[in-house]
Design brief:
By secondary structure, the chain is of the alpha+beta class. It is built from 13 helices and four strands. The chain is about 55% helix and about 10% strand.
């Protein structure tokens, strides 16, 4: 998103919010942005400076005059006058971001190997809503390459709880992983086993990831190797680790990690390990 798209999208949202017509404007701007994306020839025509400005504005009236809010139509005409109708999608993105922020809505994309059923979608939304304190707007996608589990994307973050992601993390940490074909129904059993026991703050204390003088340095070193944001708090890291790994996987990962220079990150000394 460009600075101009943020500026124009933000100005349109401010106007709509002031006049209490946010939903109508969102609907119209979405309609226009979709139309420009699906008919690039039309977009090229209404932005062609060789076509008189009056004719281009008349085209917009004909295409959108009866179907969108007047603020959207006027907004499109402003963009048209600047040969900037191609910014409509970016303006829509900024408009949505401001609207969702004002309403406490968090857009989340969930990627899974197979489609999530309604119960799974509802459980995922309820869990995320409880953790974030916001209403979840869930978008789902299917990607068989993730093998199993769910990958979540929101607010620029990615939490990879998929089987493929876990294998990749283990490999990055230097743990040898042998891939085998799982028997039918193994995914459900694995999920049940994973939910039976979760890592706790006590585990983090035992590993020196919380409550110690160098715990912050230990967490940063570990988060860096896991490909997670290094500024995560201990509580946020614990939630992420429980979402991404079973306790057994995480212990194997720690056991295979080398000690980082200057941080004394030897994670092998845990009461639950021999």
């Amino acid at each position: 998103m460009t600075a101009a798209e943020k500026e124009y999208g933000g100005a349109l949202y401010a106007l709509a919010a002031e006049e209490h017509c946010e939903d109508a404007v969102l609907e119209g701007l979405t309609l226009a942005a979709d139309a420009f994306r699906e008919t690039p020839g039309y977009l090229k025509l209404v932005q062609n400076p060789a076509v008189p400005r009056e004719e281009r504005l008349a085209m917009l009236d004909e295409a959108f005059g009866a179907g969108v809010h007047v603020y959207v139509l006027n907004f499109l005409k402003i963009l048209c006058g600047k040969s900037a109708l191609g910014m409509a999608a970016g303006c829509l993105q900024e408009y949505k971001a401001l609207l969702y922020e004002a309403r406490g809505i968090l857009p989340v994309q969930a990627v899974s190997a197979v489609p999530l059923d309604e119960a799974q979608r509802r459980a995922l939304c309820d869990s995320l809503a409880q953790k974030t304190g916001r209403t979840i707007l869930l978008e789902t996608a299917v990607d068989p390459s993730v093998l199993g589990g769910v990958k979540l994307r929101y607010e620029g973050l990615e939490l990879d709880g998929t089987a493929a992601g876990r294998l990749a993390a283990l490999r990055r940490a230097g743990v040898a992983v042998e891939e085998t074909s799982a028997p039918a129904g193994a995914g459900k059993a694995s999920s049940a086993d994973a939910s039976a026991r979760r890592l706790t703050k006590a585990d983090f204390v035992a590993w020196g990831l919380s409550g110690g003088a160098d715990s912050a340095a230990r967490r940063r070193a570990l988060l860096s190797r896991l490909g997670l944001p290094e500024r995560m708090s201990a509580n946020a890291m614990l939630a992420a680790v429980n979402a991404l790994y079973t306790p057994e996987e995480f212990e194997r990962l720690l056991a295979g990690m080398p000690e980082e220079k200057g941080t004394h990150c030897d994670f092998s000394d845990h009461p639950g390990q021999p």
